[in-house]
Structure formats: structure tokens, C-alpha cells
């Protein structure tokens, strides 16, 4: 987490830094800061809370900051130490000569700190980053060369980091390095902008150099030089990025989340247009770099992901097992990496990640890759670190998702799983052809069904108003929609802070039912199909304990209006595809409850969109 930006050029650095940090707010937003080169020293400005607080502070000091043409900036998601001004970056050494911003975690910071304190450094913050500032300053005092000081410090630092460093004696130099954290150098005319992610500089230049791990770049206004940890010069190429400056407009919606929920029909149409060309043709998925024999020989699939992506993966398991006759395991990446995994060359490993940066998933994928498994990556960021590990890259093309709560990327991940399952089933001949055809026919209809839900939001808004003032919320479902219950609960808890939990409905009577009383809302996802009657019985059991019952259903059965206090009706859909329909009302319900409660919908507390720490 955290976002870093650095600027060196002939323009005023402060505006470019703040502009860049604004684009990186998805990486954290609990405090921020900049360091700006002045005539003979470095000025530091920091603020707690949202970036706007820092921007306001800089505006008040405009005369003092506007002429600086070299600076570094940081937006923080606290890992070590509370989100206070003291702990905000940039951090400096004791004389203020070195200023550092950092994204990642320095794992051996305690040992380094103890050593540096013993040598006389006085620490002011609780962060791991301050260690880096003192360490680089120590090295610099010995070698009087900032690049060399960063190189020597890198040899002692353990962990993941992207670092951007400046020194008060070097008005034409910025030194940056990275290990297991993103850092890209934007190359302009007599200027460079380094950042954790492309949107921070794409407005100024489309030319970029992607730094590799353990490379150190020395940047002046005129030049970029890269060396490795052994001091070897590195030949690098400048890419021209196929990016357009993203319009981060809310397009009239109150929040990005609401806008992104409404984009889902278009996201599906866009994905299907290239891949599902005709219901009579096989799915077109040439991104899957497995030949027919390899697909037929697949003995097992492992899917690794976190959070919302994990829920998409669980639905992927259900669909692949139903259509492809291949056993599928789904596991949270953070668990996968700390146990012995049994894989062989016929195991396909799929990593799912909106950001392509999630540290746990990235580590898990690297582990699987070391065992020679074929790696499929499903991501919204084809330029990400995870994408670079892929043997087969399935880019979900959902477009930039700004809201921290994932919505349209989840929808696009689900689509990717349906297409992948159809492709494997077609290749293996493992499912009835008429079933595959009907799935394709119905997939094409999903966007218009979502549009019906979106144009009929009033029922969900009303439900949100009635249930907003609850402390707890239970979601129940079975079968293919059990992960939908988990995702509905996750959406609600992350943006409204209501204690929401998803259960497979059959488990309710094995413990959770004890929590039910007249204050507890229970939302049952009742989509017609194999488990409809079963969930209905589970709902009766909940009703008998006086729970406040809500149904989300595609059934017109009027009896539901008697059993349930509130019924949300959605268009009919076949069971396999019902997760695509059922999730949208739950996203809207979470949104309207959070909005009703006055929460910060797009940037909920304690969260960040890109989780780059384990
Ligand atoms: C929830 C949410 C998170 C992410 C999780 C994984 O709305 O967005 O749960 O899904 O942090 O992130 P990615 O998909 O980027 O690996």
C-alpha cells in the first residue's frame, strides 16, 4: 500500500506531486506529505487524513513552495505506527539532509533501528521507513554519492520496498529503487516523474521505464541511469504506454462506487463482444496458452485470490467443476503461501486480482510458478507485477476502478470464469452441448437484465432505508450463490461498518441461528434452481426465530411476500448464471445503506484498494 511520486524537471514540483498523489489515493489515504528542494535545504510538509488537508496546507504556503522543481510525495496506508503527522512520510535523517518516501515494509527494521540508534541516530517516528532515511544518510556520509549510498543501504534492507530519495546537497538528483513493490519512471521532456502507478504521470507523459527489482535509478533533469545491486550498468528500454489519461470523473453520480455499479452492463458487453462471437461458435479465448492436449490432461485447478477476488474464484470453482469435470480448490492467498501445496505439471494455477499487486497473491503465484505449474492470471491490470508472472494472461478490461469497494471488477472476474469454464468444457467435451449453448445465449442477455435492476433501484433504496439502522446483518445462500452471500456481506461491512456475515444457509442451524432475534436482518438469496426449496426451508427456520426476513429472488411466488418482510425481485435467469444477477442488488443495498449512514463510500476507513503488504 501507500503511493509514492517524485518529480525532477523545470516545472513547479508541488502541483505535479499533488496531482500524482491524487491519482494514487486508492493506495491509502490516512496521511500524506511532500519534500521539496529549496535553495539550500529540503522543506517538508505533512498532514493527517485525506490528501486535501495536505493540499490546503501547501496552498497556504504557496509562495514558499511554488518555485521548487524537485520533490517527492507520499500517500500513506499505515503499517508501522498510527497515521499521525510524525509518522507520515517523507522521513529524514537527523540533519534533514536526506528525505525518503517509501512504499512497502522493511522487515528487518527493528535490527537496523537498534544498530543505528547505537550509532547515535535519534528516531522520531514509529515507522520502518525512518530507518531507511538514517541508513542512507550514514552511507552517504561515508561515500558522498547518493546512488552508492542507496545501493549500500539496499544490500542491508530486507523486505519489500519502492523508495524515492533526495539529498539537500543535490539539487539535480533523485535516486529511486524497488524490490517487490511497483515503481515506474515516467520520461518527459527534460523532466521525469516516478510513481507507484501510471495514472500518477500519464497526464504528462506516455513514455515510461518499468524498473525491475533491485535496480537503482539515478535521475537528473537531463538523464536517467540505472544500475543493479552489483553496480553494473543496466541497459533499459523506454516503453510508450497505451494509456489515455483516465477521466476520473464521477459522471454525475454521487460516488465512484455508484458509477462503477452502473458501468457493469457495459463491462459485460465489452468482454463478450470479443470472446463470444456467436452461440454456435466456440468461445474465443486465445489468451489461454494451453493446447488441446494440455487442457484435456488437466488433473486439477487451484485458484488463489483475496477478498472480493476470492469470492469470484469460489463461483469460478462451482462453474468449472460443473462444466469441466476437473476438481478445483480455491484458497485465500495468505493461507496458500504458508503450507505445503501438492501440485504437478497437470495442475493449472489461477491467480485472481483486480490490482495485480496484492502481495499475498503475488507471493502465492510465484511459489506455484516455481513448481512449473501453468499460471493463469485474471486481472484488471495487464501491466501489473502479477500479470508479468502469467503464462496465460486474462485481462478483464473492466476499466479503472476508483472506489475501494470492488464492484465492476468482480463482475468482470466472474465473466472471465464463465468464459474459461465454457472454453475448457468445449475443448474437453465435458458438458452437454445444449447446456453450453444455452449458457452462451443467456450470457448475452445478462447486460439488459442488469439494466432492469439498475432502473428499478427504488425497491433497494427503500430496503436500505428500512434496514440501515442495524448493527448486524446476515446473508444466506447455497450452491452457486453461497459466494454471493459472502460478497454481499463483505460489500456491506466494508463501506457501512455494519457487522455483516455471509453463511451457507444449511450451516445456520449449526450455531449462527443462536444470534437470531427480532433485531437481526437475514437476507436470503433465493434464486430458482437446485437449492431454492432448501433455502426457503432455512428461511422458515430463521423466520421462526423472529428474524427480520429479506428475500432477493427471481421467483414470482406470492407466498414469498408472506414469509418475508421485504422482497427484492430481479429478472429471471438460469441458476448457473444467477450470481451475475444476484450481486448487483447487494452492491446497491450496501451502497445505499452506507450513503444513508453518511459514510465515506469511496474511501472507507482503514482500507486501501491495493494491498501490497502481506
Ligand atoms: C473488497 C475489495 C478487496 C479486494 C482484495 C483483493 O471490495 O476490493 O477485498 O478484493 O483486497 O484485491 P485484488 O483483487 O486487487 O487482489
Report, as a whole number of angstroms, the end-to-end distance.
10 Å
Question: What would you say the CATH architecture of the largest domain is?
Answer: 4-Layer Sandwich
CATH topology of the largest domain: Glutamine Phosphoribosylpyrophosphate, subunit 1, domain 1
- Binned, the helix content reads 25-40%
The amount of beta strand, in percent, is 15-25%
Question: Count of DSSP E strands?
Answer: 24
Would you tell me the overall average pLDDT? 95
Write structural notes for this entry:
This protein has an eight-stranded antiparallel beta sheet with strand order 3-2-4-1-10-9-11-14, covered by helices on one side. Strands 5-6-7-8-12-13 form a six-stranded antiparallel beta sheet. The model has no long low-confidence stretch (mean pLDDT 95). 36% of the residues lie in helices and 21% in strands. The protein has 614 residues and is α/β, with parallel strands linked by helices. Bound molecules: fructose -6-phosphate. Fructose -6-phosphate binds next to helix 10 and helix 16.
Amino acid at each position: 500500500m501507500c503511493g509514492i511520486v517524485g518529480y525532477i524537471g523545470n516545472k513547479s514540483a508541488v502541483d505535479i506531486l499533488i496531482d500524482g498523489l491524487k491519482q494514487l489515493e486508492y493506495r491509502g489515504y490516512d496521511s500524506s506529505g511532500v519534500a521539496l528542494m529549496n535553495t539550500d535545504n529540503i522543506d517538508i510538509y505533512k498532514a493527517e487524513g485525506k490528501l486535501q488537508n495536505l493540499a490546503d496546507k501547501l496552498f497556504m504556503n504557496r509562495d514558499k513552495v511554488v518555485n521548487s522543481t524537485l520533490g517527492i510525495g507520499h500517500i500513506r496506508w499505515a503499517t508501522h505506527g498510527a497515521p499521525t503527522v510524525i509518522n507520515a512520510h517523507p522521513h529524514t535523517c537527523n540533519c534533514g539532509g536526506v528525505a525518503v518516501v517509501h512504499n512497502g515494509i522493511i522487515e528487518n527494521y527493528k535490527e537496523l533501528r537498534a544498530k543505528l540508534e547505537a550509532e547515535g541516530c535519534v528516531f522520531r517516528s514509529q515507522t520502518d521507513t525512518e530507518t531507511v532515511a538514517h541508513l542512507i544518510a550514514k552511507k552517504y556520509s561515508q561515500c558522498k554519492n547518493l546512488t552508492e549510498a542507496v545501493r549500500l543501504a539496499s544490500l542491508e534492507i530486507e523486505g519489500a520496498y519502492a523508495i524515492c530519495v533526495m539529498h539537500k546537497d543535490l539539487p539535480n538528483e533523485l535516486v529511486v529503487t524497488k524490490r517487490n513493490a511497483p515503481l515506474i519512471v515516467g520520461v518527459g521532456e527534460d523532466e521525469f516523474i516516478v510513481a507507484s502507478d501510471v495514472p500518477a504521470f500519464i497526464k504528462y507523459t506516455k513514455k515510461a521505464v518499468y524498473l525491475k527489482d533491485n535496480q537503482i535509478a539515478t535521475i537528473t533533469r537531463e538523464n536517467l541511469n540505472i544500475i543493479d545491486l552489483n553496480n553494473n550498468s543496466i541497459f533499459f528500454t523506454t516503453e510508450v504506454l497505451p494509456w489515455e489519461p483516465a477521466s476520473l470523473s464521477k459522471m454525475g453520480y454521487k460516488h465512484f462506487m455508484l458509477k462503477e455499479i452502473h458501468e457493469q452492463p457495459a463491462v459485460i458487453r465489452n468482454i463478450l463482444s470479443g470472446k463470444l462471437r456467436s452461440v454456435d461458435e466456440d468461445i474465443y479465448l486465445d489468451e489461454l496458452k494451453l493446447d488441446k492436449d494440455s487442457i484435456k490432461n488437466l488433473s486439477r485447478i487451484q485458484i488463489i485470490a483475496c477478498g472480493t477476488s476470492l469470492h469470484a474464484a469460489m463461483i469460478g470453482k462451482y462453474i468449472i467443476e460443473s462444466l469441466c469435470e476437473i476438481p478445483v480448490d480455491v484458497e485465500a492467498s495468505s493461507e496458500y503461501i504458508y503450507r505445503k501445496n501438492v501440485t504437478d505439471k497437470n495442475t493449472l494455477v489461477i491467480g485472481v486480482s483486480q490490482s495485480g499487486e496484492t502481495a499475498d497473491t503475488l507471493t502465492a503465484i510465484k511459489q506455484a510458478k516455481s513448481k512449473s505449474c501453468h499460471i493463469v492470471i485474471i486481472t484488471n491490470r495487464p501491466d501489473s507485477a502479477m500479470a508479468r508472472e502469467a503464462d496465460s494472461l486474462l485481462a478483464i478490461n473492466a476499466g479503472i476502478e476508483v472506489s475501494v469497494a470492488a464492484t465492476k471488477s468482480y463482475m468482470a472476474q466472474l465473466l472471465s470464469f464463465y468464459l474459461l469454464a465454457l472454453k475448457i468444457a468445449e475443448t474437453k467435451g465435458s458438458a452437454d452441448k445444449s447446456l453450453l449453448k444455452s449458457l452462451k445465449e443467456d450470457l448475452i442477455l445478462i447486460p439488459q437484465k442488469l439494466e432492469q435492476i439498475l432502473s428499478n433501484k427504488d425497491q433497494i433504496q427503500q430496503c436500505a432505508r428500512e434496514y440501515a439502522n442495524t448493527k448486524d446483518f446476515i446473508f444466506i445462500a447455497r450452491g452457486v450463490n453461497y459466494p454471493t452471500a459472502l460478497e454481499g456481506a463483505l460489500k456491506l461491512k466494508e463501506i457501512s461498518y455494519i457487522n455483516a456475515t455471509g453463511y451457507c444457509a444449511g450451516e445456520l442451524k449449526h450455531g449462527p441461528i443462536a444470534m437470531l432475534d427480532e433485531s437481526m436482518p437475514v437476507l436470503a438469496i433465493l434464486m430458482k434452481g437446485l437449492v431454492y426449496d432448501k433455502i426457503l426451508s432455512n428461511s422458515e427456520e430463521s423466520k421462526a426465530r423472529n428474524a427480520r426476513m429479506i428475500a432477493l429472488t427471481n421467483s414470482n411466488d406470492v407466498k414469498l411476500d408472506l414469509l418475508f418482510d421485504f422482497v427484492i425481485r430481479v429478472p429471471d435467469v438460469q441458476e448457473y448464471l444467477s450470481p451475475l444477477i444476484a450481486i448487483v442488488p447487494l452492491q446497491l443495498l450496501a451502497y445505499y445503506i452506507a450513503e444513508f449512514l453518511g459514510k465515506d463510500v469511496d474511501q472507507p476507513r482503514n482500507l486501501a484498494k491495493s494491498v501490497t503488504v502481506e
